[in-house]
Design goal:
With about 300 residues, the chain is α/β, with parallel strands linked by helices. It contains 8 helices and 8 strands. Strand 7 and strand 8 form a beta hairpin.
């Protein structure tokens, strides 16, 4: 597919797209995830081409594929975008019972609706969480969903942001302390890969480079971190599941309308400082010592 200029970009999805656990540098209480960073790349690309650019982010944490393919896509199409990123399905894979075929079918229906308007679509695969001792058992579902997503992309000529094969994401430092969302560095790497995938960045190296080696935790440090994580993050998640609640209940989209963006493009790897990461090295209480799962509600 040829590189082109997009003037109206809309992101739909769940917490991965919203950027949960990645605080915005210019909006207190808000988040700036990979979609916001990708929008910065697109804005810079358009500025060089003398083209206008606007961006909306309709993603809400905890949403399932039906919520994204339905209401979110409805709202996105009302904004008449020429590029839509679609990142959902991971929450469905974490449910006790799920038909991956049904998830893929809903994804394809949404893609067809978007493509019929003339807009391009950027689909996002699941990350590979096979090394996670907690959710690694759902990795076969993630793989099945990713395979189905590639089929949809092939049939409808979509761009694909391939998180499955982005190996640096298997580093625990690419995940936030809750182990279920990406860290700022993880979001920066993903955005850089997305920009390269869309052809608005020529950088094909920095986002693929592994982080410098980190000192391993001792057994007792690891156990203490695991206990703190279970108390602070796992237990509330289980309680919400029992009560049928979602972390996104009552949450509205952070950018419901197309508007200009002021963020600057940020290359993956810029947060490293002398072999240590600005956002921590996995040794803080509750910090991850292993890759986290795909974002649950």
């Amino acid at each position: 597919m040829e590189t082109r200029t997009w003037e109206r970009f809309v992101a739909v999805g769940d917490s991965f797209t919203e950027g949960l656990m990645d605080p915005s540098p210019d909006q207190p209480g808000a988040f700036a995830g990979w979609a916001d960073r990708l929008a910065a790349y697109l804005a810079a690309h358009n500025a060089q081409a003398g083209a206008e650019f606007g961006y909306a982010n309709l993603a809400i944490r905890g949403r399932l594929i039906a919520d994204v393919a339905g209401p979110q896509v409805d709202a996105a199409l009302e904004l008449t975008p020429d590029l839509v990123s679609f990142c959902a399905g991971g929450n469905d894979c974490l449910r006790a019972k799920v038909s991956i075929d049904d998830v893929v079918d809903q994804l394809e229906d949404a893609v067809i609706r978007i493509k019929e308007t003339g807009a391009d679509v950027l689909l996002v695969t699941s990350p590979n969480v096979s090394e996670s001792p907690i959710v690694g058992r759902v990795n076969p579902r993630m793989a099945e969903f990713t395979a189905g997503l590639w089929g949809v992309a092939s049939r409808h000529e979509c761009y694909v942001l391939d998180l499955w094969n982005l190996r640096p994401l298997r580093d625990p430092r690419m995940w936030a302390e809750d182990r279920i969302h990406f860290s700022p560095e993880g979001h920066a790497r993903i955005a850089a890969q997305a920009a390269y995938t869309l052809g608005v960045s020529e950088d094909a190296e920095s986002w693929r480079e592994p982080l410098p080696a980190a000192s391993p935790l001792s057994r007792w440090e690891s156990l203490a971190a695991d206990r703190e994580w279970a108390r602070t993050h796992l237990r509330p998640w289980i309680v919400r599941r029992i009560r049928g609640q979602s972390s996104g209940d009552g949450i509205a989209p952070k950018r419901p309308r197309i508007a200009p963006l002021t963020l600057e493009p940020e290359q993956g790897g810029e947060r490293e400082r002398g072999g240590e990461r600005e956002q921590g090295d996995g040794h803080e209480p509750g910090g991850s010592t292993r890759p986290g799962p795909s974002a649950p509600a």
